[in-house]
Amino acid sequence: MPKPPAAHGRIQSRSLLLVALLLVGALGLSAYKSKPWTIRPAESYPSRLTSEKVTIAVDPLFLDSLAGQVFDRKDVVTRGVLPVAIAVFNENEFPVEIDGESIELIMGDEKLRSLEPGEVVGRLFQQKGGRKVWIPNPIPKIPSAVGPDTEAFEDLEHKYFASKIVAPRAKGGGFLYFPVRNPNDLRKALEDSRLNIPDLYRQDTGDRLLYFEIELRQAIAAAPKK
């Protein structure tokens, strides 16, 4: 089955990030430094699955201490965002494409889709007392210079797994940002959760590959207790 048209939200997402940056500048946003993230060897990920010479590994950063190693915030999960790293290892002789925006986190009866980076901005940089970042609609024209704190928003977008093409004999990855209602019960909830990855294709022909459904139990068991 040929793949559907590519998602059109990428450019809009970037615009949302830049608009949010301009609007939160007056709120006293502290300096943010982009932190590196590298893909580990496939065998180092407890939650992974291999099919048709493609291995997909997932790593939920469900503690503030874990998320803080990748993102320059100490309260990412507390503020309602669960970053999930996705690493793709392609051992085929053809490139593969994964649609990240169709990936679902299945928790009990709930099927959660990733927040857009602009929505993550609203959660992470909400002021104490409930004031949120307001993003206008339609989006205004963005000036070329946006100030010194651009890196905070660029980092979220750069690491976002919206869509990924992985070359033959190569690897690629990024993050999805799932909404969190109750951070205190997150470990227990994730023990019986799984990530559904339905849309994988041969990038050269557009033919669909088998879908992946990866349990998170192994990753949760291997993670720190605090």
Which characteristics define this entry?
226 residues; alpha+beta; four-stranded antiparallel beta sheet; 22% helix; globular
How are the SSEs ordered, and which strands pair?
Layout: H1 9-24, E1 47-51, E2 54-60, H2 64-67, E3 81-90, E4 96-99, E5 104-107, E6 110-113, H3 117-124, H4 150-158, E7 163-166, E8 170-179, H5 186-191, E9 194-197, E10 200-202, E11 212-215, H6 217-222
Antiparallel strand pairs: 1-2, 2-3, 3-8, 4-7, 4-10, 5-6, 5-9, 9-11
Helix-strand topology string: HEEHEEEEHHEEHEEEH
Mean pLDDT: 84
β-sheet strand percentage: 25-35%
* Number of contiguous helices: 6
Q: What class do helices, strands and sheet pairing give?
A: alpha+beta
Largest sheet features: 4 strands, antiparallel
Compute the number of structural domains. Answer: 1
* Helix-residue proportion: 10-25%
- Which stretches are poorly predicted, pLDDT < 50 over at least 5 residues? 24-29, 133-149
